[in-house]
Specification:
Strand content: 35-45%
Oligomer: single chain
Distance between the termini: 19 Å
Amino acid sequence: MKIKVGTYAGAGDNTYVTGVGFEPDFLWVKRSTALIGYIRMSTMPLNQAQQISGTLVADEIQRFEPDGFRTGAGNSGAGTNYYLAIRADPRDCKVFSYIGDGVDSRAFTGIGFQPGFIMILGVQNASVVVK
């Protein structure tokens, strides 16, 4: 697994943020002037990210690139942007999506290791679960 924590100045539409050193599978961005952060995962469609509150938004983080990521028009506010980028290694990190069914005690199999950290971000119920 590769991890990079960094900052960039308020970017504009279609800005390539470089210097990450790898193409992320997971990105968490929080602008100093915004109340809420955004997450983008490699499993999401292009030009889509998700607010930590659970709301899907377009044009914040457009896509991942070989050395970073590309921002959208929604990411053009002033201020410093802080980010956490992760490149998954199948031996110790997995990024995936699933369709919830509203039932407790769901088993996830095939991960390949015992997770030490789990983050589940719901879309419809706007909840974040961290274990």
